[in-house]
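Deviation from plan, reported transparently: pyridoxal-5'-phosphate complex.
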Amino acid sequence: MSSIADNIAHLKSTLPSDVTLVAVSKFHPVDTLRQAYDCGVRDFGESRVQELKAKVPSMPADIRWHFIGHLQSNKVRALLPLVSLIHSVDSLELLRCINREAERIGKTVDVLLQLHVAQESTKFGFDVNDCVSLFGSVSFAELTSVRICGVMGMATNTDDEVQIHREFAEIRRIFDTMKQRFFAEADYFNVVSMGMTDDYPIAITEGSNMVRIGSYIFGPRQY
Ligand SMILES: *Cc1c(COP(=O)(O)O)cnc(C)c1O
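Because the crystal trials were delayed, the predicted structure below was used instead.
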């Protein structure tokens, strides 16, 4: 079995230099995360607030923590002080809630809008029409404590590579449209988070610049 260091070295040698690697460390203990940290990884992804909260104090302070799981409104308050980017904003209500809490603590919170393009009905997120109406709306202009930095999306879990290509291309296309129409002047709107262990090479071909990789680095998760 190859080591975490080998896996990271291999990823780093194959990822284009403008693609950020987020090491998805959910369900792995902090000593495992530490090995990745020692290889230079500074971006870690977690999907549960409780788990993130438990890990942060045991890890170095220069880590950028990414939240990638489904986020419930009642967990937002606990999450905000810890996180540097929330990938999984999947509704206007949640965006409003994050804005309210961010305002309360005097912080501007960086978020990505999670787009829904995959076939599975279980996947949360915005579709194109939601995005267009969101940015056109008055209520959006009032959200001054969140900074929308781009989009996140997942492809359908399938062996059909044509379909995976198509879905990632769709996410990228929505990003480009949003950039052109609403964020042309905003340098911070520049993140396309897509690609996991099984599909990240395809995601990169289709224009991802942030990949979220867990099993490839750490091996299977112990639930
Ligand atoms: C778990 C998870 C990942 C990482 O998945 P792997 O297949 O282990 O690379 C990426 N993104 C999200 C949203 C996840 O929940």
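The beta strands are 20-24, 43-46, 64-67, 85-89, 109-115, 146-153, 191-194, 210-213. We consider this an acceptable substitute for the interim report.
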